[in-house]
Amino acid sequence: MLRIKLDDEKVTGLKRAQQRRKKQLMTLRIAEIMLLILICGAIWLGIRHFTQPKVTKMITITAPALIIRQAPNSSKAVATVKSGTEVGYLSTKNGWDKVSYNGKVGWLPTWLIKSTYDATKATNRLAEQTIVIDAGHGGVDSGALANNGNYEKKYTLQMALALKNQLASSHARVIMTRSGDQTVALASRPKLANKRGASLFISFHFDSTPVANTASGFTTYYYHKASKSLARTLSQSLNPLTLDNRGIDYGNFQVIRDSTMPAVLLEMGYINDYTDYQYISSSSYQQQVAQLVYKGLENYTTN
């Protein structure tokens, strides 16, 4: 009986030793797991620290309200910020500031930050557009001739400036390829638009025929398929003009061919047609074209 009792105690002791060993192993395993979690967390924080964009300064929004966008264009909204809000400045691209706000990163149009624009009341995104207006010809390039000897370059500039002035109230960022009678190479016009991150490109010209007074009306040209919608919208908007709307058409013109954004070339009448020229040279016609193009741009950016 004594031997059996001793054997039982020995077995019990072994079981207890095994249980202690299991507990020690479990404690060690938990400690290893916790250590691994801590190491992974430290690595993640380190990576986050070195990969997160650095805020170099704070910007105070003075516009009534702006929308932070996902990309430096009129893209998906990230957040809305109101007057007095501070955002962290990260970098600049295509006239947009990359900012950090409430743990989110996005883009704001630089030209709107200190404006009077209220994005919460806008029905379109015209204010967020960078629009390049191209007055055809200029300088040594006179363009086509009117029957009285006046140059096309004179009237393309007048019409381009009329549109620029019309757009002033829209808050849009407007860039001119020329603002006076200077020579501007064809290739440099779309190059400027591409470099400045333009979202829309509009070039003004006037048609001409070999024989005077044999054609009349205006045409909207596009080159890339992506520009066709803009061409159609602007053409429809120009319908109220007295001159005949000859519709939209494909045009292999360098200024719209080399542009990477939606681009159109507007031939706003035949300069060597007597009737058309009366309109082309009229400031009231130029203002009406500017107003109708403005309306077309509003319609286009609504969608």
TrEMBL record:
Biological process terms in GO annotation: cell wall organization; peptidoglycan catabolic process
Pfam families: Amidase_3, SH3_3
Xref: Gene3D superfamilies: SH3 Domains (2.30.30.40), Zn-dependent exopeptidases (3.40.630.40)
SUPFAM superfamilies linked to this entry: Zn-dependent exopeptidases (SSF53187)
Transmembrane segments: 26-47
GO cellular component: outer membrane-bounded periplasmic space
GO molecular function annotations of the record: N-acetylmuramoyl-L-alanine amidase activity
Protein name: N-acetylmuramoyl-L-alanine amidase
Organism: Loigolactobacillus coryniformis subsp. coryniformis KCTC 3167 = DSM 20001
